[in-house]
Amino acid sequence: MADSIKEETPTSALGSDAEFDAELVRKRKSKSPGIFHESKRAKESEDIDLSEDIAKQFKKFKAAPKYNFYSEEVYCVCRKPDHGGELMVGCDGCEEWFHFKCMKLNVKNQKLIDSFFCKFCQWQGFGTTKWHRKCRLTSCHNPILKNEKSKYCSEECGLQYFKSRLTGSDVLTQSDIKVVLTKCSGHNDLTRMGQEFPELPEVRLLDMDKLPGDIRQDLTDSDTKKQSINDLLELAERRSEFLVQIKEKVRLINEKLQLKLEPSGDSDEVKKSKKKKTKLRKVDLCCFDRKLSEDSMIAEYDRVLGLESVYEAFKDEIDEVVEHYDGDGSADYTGSMCLSDRRKCLRHNGWLSLLTDQVWKRKSELELLLERLDQHKADTLRDYSIQKYEECVV
């Protein structure tokens, strides 16, 4: 990009003959009432973006002559020759030259330009101007060192930046920085510093005897609440496991009833009846047990979960249902389970999924309460440590 910028050079006091003649013509024209003054023309150029559409500007720019009255090549939107007095930049799209001032570019940022596209090329979609990242030091306008992945253009600017940050700082003094750097053996120790809060010894070891009375009482209350919640959470876990056993019990009941209702044997009468009769519908009973909603069922958790076989745990209930159900009705059944067809039982529709969801929701609520108690305990100890540190500073 360096080749596309013409460096600014001081204009000669005398100048060439053509420049001298041009100056005389300018003075003559400035006295003519029918021609705009140079200052008015400059102001009109500055306001051109506001008064004309970009399409009209581009049309006017392309139709403008390439040479002036003295056969000098003219550049930029202002259509002036290059007399070496102003910094110019070359467009990477149309390869035209433009003044920094006319393009509203800061001369101090000339080294930061990576690729430049004039407003006409940007309007036509040929590209956009790209910049190098500026040095972090405010007073420096050089690009950063890309190869070293630095935020500064040089080591000197980096040192100057941090010196300026430390000068007059109310947070860190040079003595504080010296203490920190003395305790750090390397860069890794410096980056790890501050990642963990420096807890007090009595807080880190949770030495209740060295903590104030109000802190001890707060922590004791939190531990009591936490123990109660843990007991409820354990009960919810056991109920969740118990429902898994209940699901298996329902499967065993339907399976045994299916085998009971299907004809068995190899006699000719059985084979003949199988051919005549249609296939039996799959047995799928509701099997909702109203005792599941009673608190007395909690006592069954330990007994049921302590046995390896589900059938052994619910043998009496399973055998009673299988004995009294005949496929057409169960009027003589006096147990606590619903023996209606699951697909037709609207009263207990989806009961097992509903109970499972209730247990999951209860467990989530209890776990959230435990997290809040743990966070409250950590905040209490952290606030106590901060208070002690502040007392030492004062």
TrEMBL record:
It is found in: Nucleus. Keywords: Metal-binding, Nucleus, Zinc, Zinc-finger. SMART domains: PHD. One of its GO terms (molecular function) is zinc ion binding. PROSITE patterns: ZF_PHD_1, ZF_PHD_2. Residues 73-124 form the PHD-type domain. Gene3D superfamilies: Zinc/RING finger domain, C3HC4 (zinc finger) (3.30.40.10). Its main location: nucleus. One of its GO terms (cellular component) is Set1C/COMPASS complex. GO terms for biological process: positive regulation of DNA-templated transcription. Residues 25-46 are annotated as: Disordered. This is CIC11C00000004969.
